[in-house]
Structures are given as C-alpha cells and as structure tokens.
Amino acid sequence: MPPALQSIWFVPHVLVYFTGYSALLLAAVAAGAYLARPGGTVPIENPAGAKSIGYQALMHGLIVAGYLLMTAGLILGAVWAKEAWGNYWTWDPKENWALISWLTYTMYFHVRRLPGWGDRGSAWLAIIAFGIVIFTYLGIVVLPTADTSAHVYQ
C-alpha cells in the first residue's frame, strides 16, 4: 500500500464516509419512493408497538444522519491529509468534489423550507445530491486532473 494509506486515519475516514454514503443512498431511494407515492409510508417496529413514517420524513432523517457522517468524514480526512501530506486541504479533485457534495446537502437544509420549494423539490434535490456523491466516489477518475490526484490509486 502507498505510504499515505498506512495511517491510523485511513480506516475511520473510509468507514465513516461509507456509512454516510449508505444513509444518503437510502435517502435517495426514499426520495424516489416519495416522488412515486407522496402519501406512502414505511412501517417501523419499536418496543411501544408498530408505527409508520412517511417517505419524506424518512428521507430527511437519513439525510441528517448522512450529512453528519459526511461532516465527520471531511474532518477525519483533513486530519489524515495533514499527517500524510502536511496540509489539511490541498484542493485535490476528490477533496473538491467531496466539498461540493457536502455543500449540496447543506443547500438541501437551507432550501427545503423556502416557500414554493416544497417536499417534491426537496426529494429531487436529494436525488441530485446523491448523483453528485456517486460522481465524487466513482467519477473522479474521468476528470483530466485525475492523474494529479492523491486520491486516485492505480
């Protein structure tokens, strides 16, 4: 493994991000379900008895969890970068797109309550934001600057 990957920060950074990405994937699925069936619910079992939650509320809760995990992943990545390369942020393509992903979900929190935006707009933004996450994770290698990225290992 490259020396930068031989760090105690590698595993926590990756695990936190993957867990956050998983929550955001489920949020995008809930958003799609909401767009298909706005009144639909998901049954939730708890010790007090069965209950249900609407797709929109489920989507929002998953985005909150995913956003918090992405935030932790950014912080862990910055600490790891400081140890590996001497800087917290190097404006690497992967770092830039991770920031764009995070800012897109930040925008979700800011616009979801704007008049005229509504639940449908929030659901569409959740799907678009997850598309940006997918590009951040998989699409970086197609950028012309991918060869200079510290995050592309070949």
Describe the overall structure.
- The protein is mostly helical and 154 residues long.
- The protein has helices at 10-36, 55-85, 93-111, 118-138, and strands at 41-46, 49-54.
- The protein has a two-stranded antiparallel ribbon with strand order 1-2.
- Strand 1 and strand 2 form a beta hairpin.
- Helix 2 packs antiparallel against helix 3.
- The mean pLDDT is 88.
Quick summary of this structure?
With 154 residues, the protein is mainly α. The chain is built from 4 helices and 2 strands; from the N terminus they run αββααα. Strand 1 and strand 2 form a beta hairpin.
Radius of gyration: 18 Å
Helix residue percentage = 55-70%
Biggest sheet: strands, sense, closure?
2 strands, antiparallel
Report the β-strand fraction as a percent range.
5-15%
Q: Mean pLDDT across all residues, rounded?
A: 88
Head-to-tail CA distance between termini: 11 Å
Describe the strand arrangement of the main beta sheet, using strand numbers.
1-2
Task: Give the topology.
Elements: H1 10-36, E1 41-46, E2 49-54, H2 55-85, H3 93-111, H4 118-138
Antiparallel strand pairs: 1-2
Helix pairs in contact: 1-2, 1-4, 2-3, 3-4
Key attributes of the depicted protein:
single chain; 154 residues; mainly alpha; two-stranded antiparallel sheet; 4 helices; 2 strands
